[in-house]
Write a structure and sequence with these properties.
It contains nine helices and 19 strands. With 370 residues, the protein is of the alpha+beta class.
Amino acid sequence: MISIESTDFHADRIARLQQELTSSGIDIAVFGPSADLLYLTGFDAHLSERLNLLVVPVSGKPSVVVPTLEAPLVGDASRLVSIHTWEDHEDAAALAATVIGNVSGKKIAAGNQLWTAFLLRLQTHLPGASWVEAAPIIRPLRMIKDWAEIDALTEVSRLTDEAWEEFIEGPAISGLTEVEALKRLSDLTAQRGLKVSWGICASGPNAASPHHHTGDRVIEDGDSVIFDWGGNLNGYNSDVTRTVFIGQPTEEFKKVYQVVRDANQATFEAVKPGVPLQELDRVARNLISDAGYGEAFLHRVGHGLGLEVHEEPYLVEGNTLPLQAGMTFSDEPGIYLKGKFGVRIEDTVVCTGEGGVKLNHATRDLVCMD
């Protein structure tokens, strides 16, 4: 896999951000610890009560305001930025204001994950500026994955698929709690070198809740079980969902499973540059509605994926942004029948100039486990 830690990638990203600043009439952008900061510099800043701040002017060299004790963490990003350190007894926001300089009549874009307390302190020290959110200027960059990012996402997806294939060939999960079953899958994922920090195992009627909190319910014969999980490799995430049945599936379950699988495939086949993002949601929703389950499809059909598990673009009604090559997102239709069961199938898809490419290849066949 190609490394994306080179400062050449980050220098190019900063240059493209400055082009967005210019075209948007914005003078300065500021970012706290976040995926945005990591994307632009490679600096994975510590999120705490101590201010870390990236300052990107419309032209010239960016700066990082960082606590002295955390300055070594800037690492290779120090080649791209000027570093300004502060001690615990000093006013970090005042230092940041000094670094930024006179802002009278200027427009500053603040990263959407900058803590409100830090934003308010900066605004106190920088009177005369107008403030806007930075999402509209960072969004065009992060939504379109470059080749190194796609390479990273391909690899993390491949390893996650491997874990699933081993999991379904492994011991029975009937008799385990949801927590225990998810741990088994998470351990298999971690054994492949991925960091695992989240996951969902929803069994039986719990599977009718899309974001169920994995709990102590014991998995038993006759359950559908949804596993939604992923891993992180070099900062980039996988996000996969598969649904299994314990024992022999009912006719109703088999019907619902096939509808969801068909919706997953139809959404994938609709991926082409220029297609409005909302159209992908419509494709899945129309198919599920025509099968009689429209009211049981409780969420959008997908979301962007990269440095964050959920990021732009969002595949939802009302989003008329056209698909572009490099956009990478989930394809995850689902049907949730309250009090009974749920089914969801999720893959990561990248849009290319010719259409969609699936990064997940773990079986989508109906798997029955003991």
